[in-house]
Amino acid sequence: MSHDPHAAPKEPIGWMDKPAAVKRLFVILYVIAGLLFAAEFILGRHTEHPHPWEGVPGFYAIYGFISFWFLVLLAKPMRKLLMRPENYYDGEASDAE
Amino acid sequence: MLSSIPPFALFFLGAIAVAFTKGPVRKVLVLAIPLIGGLNLWFGVEPGVHLQIELLGYTLTPYRADKLSLLFGYLFHIAAFLGFVYALHLGDGTPVGSVASDVGEEDITGDKTAGLQHVSAMLYAGSALGAVFAGDLITLFVFWELLAVTSAFLIWARDSERSYATGFRYLIIHVVSGVLLLSGALMLAHSSGSVAFEHIDLSTAGPGAWILLIAFGIKAGFPLAHNWITDAYPESTPTGTVFLSAFTTKVAVYAIARGFAGADVLIYIGTIMTFFPIFYAVLENDLRRVLGYSMINQIGFMIAGIGIGTGLAVNGAVAHAFADVIFKGLLFMSMGAVMTMTGRTKGTDLGGLYKTMPLTATLCIFGASAISAFPMFSAFVTKSMIMVAAIEEHHYIVWLFMLFASAGVLEHAGIKIPFFAFFAHDSGIRAKEPPKNMLIAMSIGAVLCVLIGVFPMAFYTLLPMEMDYHPYDTTHVLVQLQLLCFGAIGFVTLMKSGIYPDEKRAVHVDAEVLYRKLGPWIVRSVGGAVARIDAYVRSSVMEVVGTALKGANRWHGSMGPLARSWPTGSMVLWVAVLLAAYLVFYLF
User: Fold this and answer.
1) Residue B66: closest CA among B141, B140, B135
2) Where are the domains of chain B?
3) Which residues 67-86 of A are in CB contact (within 8 Å) with B?
4) Which residue of chain B is at minimal alpha-carbon distance from A70?
5) Given B77, B130, B235, B430, which is the most exposed site by the fewest CB atoms within 10 A?
6) pTM here?
7) What is the pLDDT of residues B502-524, one digit of tens each?
């Protein structure tokens, strides 16, 4: 092998280094989301045993979005309360908490 | 002939052979054993009792097969096979292209402990098989403890100070679970006269049943007993964690499904398990620990399903256990591959790996899609059974919690794991793809995730209960895609607005603080108090003794009045006095 392992590797450029590509990805996501939301009103929802709240139009879409925000907004104060340094459990004998 | 041999026996004998071989022979052996065992189970084993012995008046059934145990039997053979394919490079030195030594991880694969890892993984897989084919609680107990001991070596194989401590904590917790199992089993045997492992009614079987459930619950990661998972999985070797994630908790799920299906309390325990870990998963930095929390969340769905107890719900629970072993295995494998090649598993250290590890990134996304329950992937056809059963049985609040937890799965396992490891900010790490065997194992896992998702009806024929369920209808696909897609938009908006919490080099206090901080603190404090009391008592006693000695010294010491030596002259005088007195008495 003539390949020199110490030669500086060529810096790879990925698609995420191009802002336009990332933006395009987001646009695709929003378009799909819009289509899915609209599809509910075209196809309708047919469930054998519906949940009493399921009747709300766009229930799953709203619930999914709110769940993420709720999760993160609740996790942040939790971090304030529970975060400890990485070595918190190390050397239990010496650091009397 | 082979069909009459219990499945665990092949693995135990195999482990002996693996212990005495090296190189290519050992590689062939570790692949052949789960393969032969799996084919034998699939083609050769019929439901029924295959081995029964009488011992001390009790009937032990070390080998009983039915649809439930066979399902887990197939699963554990697949998991063992995938695990060994994934670990096949052990003993070949650090993989080419690994930059793990940059961060001081010289022996990242656990090369020095390759033999130990293979042998303990083989025994561990065998113990899991022994447990699911055990027809009585005493046999179950034996394999329960063997599971604990054999798997602890997979943690110690990391050969670090941290892994030694973690391994001991892990072992203690699992031995306690085993002791409880035996206690519960003996109490049940005392009241019913049988040690057979069948369905147990919590409301009538007495305290033995509850002790048994707690024993199972510890292994299944019930709340407050869950931290052994998040403690052990990040500390094992890259390959060891893949084995760890497959067997222990799923044996527990199997045991709970067999013993306690329909117990209402499980619905609530399971629901709690689905949602509290997802908050930790958002905050946690170590991506293998995130997967540990994710595992608790997935087991929560299974436990809730078992608690609901209808045919559809129990089928959903065990089907989801099956799917979980494969997609969670795939996710642990992808993180293990990252760890092998970079020496790092923390969100703060990683990012941008898609540039040099595109295959690993793609395979990770397959696992992420499967766990997030995208249509055409496994969890879509397994978890939905539990969700539908919850509504059928009118557990509406439980269902809302589980739907929230499903969105949480997308957040931590579906997006966070691949995003922080392979995308996010470019960490500048230029590690190559992992060894071929790792990529092959991950590919098989990815294919299985899709096969289960695409051909659910074929998979459903393996499930133990009767049911009539079809996962693919327009509404189910549509609402699931809506949930996931709008959840993803939630993530994007949280990231863009800067609200999403950064990865931080930190730990977050969980229930384990009770035994890792509070317990030792109590021992230290009580020990300190005892030492002080002890010192006080000792000094008081010494003072009394000292005073007594001083007093004795005053009277009997060298200068004391009682210690003075009298001169011989005075003695003669006293004798003369005595004789004189005697003479006086004698004469008169």
Assistant:
1) B135
2) 1-189+226-255, 261-511, 514-553
3) 67-76, 78-79, 82-86
4) B404
5) B430
6) 0.89
7) 888 988 988 888 888 888 889 88
